[in-house]
Amino acid sequence: MMNMLALARRLICGAGVMAMFMTIPQAAAASIEARGIAPIESGGLELARLAAIRDATQQAELQAGSQLEVAETTAKTGTPLQSSRLRAKQNFGEITVLREWVEGDMFHVLIRADEKSLRDQVGVGRAYRKKVVAGQFILSKPLQAPDFEDLWNGVPRELMRRLENSGQVLPRLIQRPVLTDVLQINTEPLRKSMQQVAEQSDAQFIISGMIVDMGSAAEGGYFGYLQDVKRRFEVELFIHDGMTGAMVSHHRLDKWGIAKSQVEPGKPFGSAAFYMTDYGKVINDVINDMVNVVLADLSRLPFSAKVVRVNGNKIFLDAGSTSSIGVGDKLVVYQLQPGWGISALQNGADIGVPETPITTVLITQVQPLFATGELQTELKNNKVRIGDLVRFEAPR
Predict the structure, then answer these.
(1) Would you tell me the crossing angle of helices 4-14 and 44-64 to the nearest 10 degrees?
(2) pTM of the predicted protein model
(3) Inter-residue contact 321 to 327 (CB < 8 Å)
(4) CATH 2.40.10.410 in the chain, residues?
(5) What gap in Å lies between CA 51 and CA 3, rounded to an integer?
(6) Do the Cβ atoms of 210 and 236 come closer than 8 Å?
(7) What is the pLDDT of residues 155-190, one digit of tens each?
């Protein structure tokens, strides 16, 4: 019987589709049985057995209900390069091997998993989690915030906490501002600074911001009495790409709300008591808006990881299961060409480094913070190097 994943990929390629989702419906059986096979190679029977069990587990996940994501690009030689990932809606707790046997040079297994043992697993059915770092926010008018302490750290800390809860971001925080002057937002010195922040923080994207306004105003009432006092919370938000230092998005968000008095002592920023106050509710809404625009912006940008070690046909990446990378994922390897840096025509400033897709890598082993993969084509001239990128272009 043809491997269902291979069949799905063949159908997609045959149709000439560049990027798409394929959803395999969920079976309603009380238990799931599946077969897996693997070639017996130099690693011997034990490695072949583990590979066959992994293949059988993948078949069971397909039966349980899975989604295949595929994206395709082309190498400069004209060879199509396909990245793909299979994401089950659920994963199996325990696998029982019912039978195992050898036929020729292939190892076969038959496994079973009861539906009762299905359990949720972090990363299952989710997009790859991108590494994002945020620094302190600039407080442009400190005299407007006498009722706050450490607001410059509190806002980015709360933003990153909520982004982490989304399951789409791996957050990092640094206790210093990464942006000190918004007038320098598109300058080469700032781009270089952002590149350094990303390198030091091991991040793909950088978030920075400025708290623009926290002023108040009275309105309504009669002859100066019974007026409603409103207070504003306005934030300017920036997202930069870590590899190039370029700004990829810029937002200005604000909200007015009733705030009859300053925030009382004993209600620290971010606490439940703080969010019960009138002004706390205003800030809570703005932070939620910030989360939404960040997630929307990042969803349109591809996930990438760096090659940190090369050992023959095997490469090691600086992203693992915490980034939702899984065994069986297939990613495209891009070779950077630092000697061919692109400069702006007007002032000669560096604006990026060209990259070329050269091969694909199949993920074979995953740890929390790194993954190991095998290159899928033999490279003669363009060898994979430390610092090269692997990327998955999400279907749109």
Answers:
(1) 70
(2) 0.71
(3) no
(4) 302-396
(5) 14
(6) yes
(7) 999 999 999 998 899 999 998 998 877 777 778 888
